[in-house]
Design a protein that fits this description.
162 residues; alpha+beta; three-stranded antiparallel beta sheet; globular
């Protein structure tokens, strides 16, 4: 199934999470000289952190669906606070301070996400506060960009209907 770039992932009612790799790019890809400094290890680091970010978002939906197996479809839907904020986005905002982390993830942010002690020894408030202290800049150390569309939802299911 071909998915638009605006859908990063979605969770089926039947307990399957689908992750879409379309739309993930190196921020510095316009400049080939800058990319020479971004090795495969850095790209892998960025992708691992991005995967954790996506899975956290989708786990919100997965748990709702898991707890409502074999029940009416309406019970499987994740609550939406308003038309722009659904449960997965709210969970991401709670943990990281922004629903999309500004559509980028740099090496310093990726290292922070992948460091187990940040998850094990900090409260949610400490985790978010320390994460938000990391400069959202990628000029010197590489960055991936995701969700390059006009849609602001990481989980825009409107493209799946029809």
């Amino acid at each position: 199934m071909n998915l638009p770039e605006s859908i990063k992932a979605f969770t089926f009612r039947f307990l399957k999470i689908v992750i879409n790799s379309k739309g993930i790019r190196l921020k510095n890809e316009q400049s080939k000289d800058k990319n020479k400094n971004i090795g495969n290890n850095v790209i892998l680091l960025l992708l691992k952190a991005y995967l954790i970010f996506i899975i956290i978002h989708e786990l919100n939906h997965f748990m709702k669906r898991y707890l409502n197996q074999n029940k009416a479809y309406d019970l499987c839907k994740t609550p939406t606070v308003n038309e722009h904020n659904e449960g997965g986005e709210l969970l991401i905002e709670l943990i990281f301070g922004h629903i999309l982390i500004h559509n980028t993830l740099n090496v310093e942010q990726a290292n922070y996400i992948l460091k187990p002690e940040n998850w094990n020894k900090k409260s949610v408030i400490e985790f978010r506060t320390d994460f938000l202290k990391i400069k959202n800049d990628s000029e010197n150390n590489g960055c991936i960009v995701y969700l390059n569309s006009e849609n602001t939802s990481i989980c825009d299911h409107s493209k799946l209907n029809g």
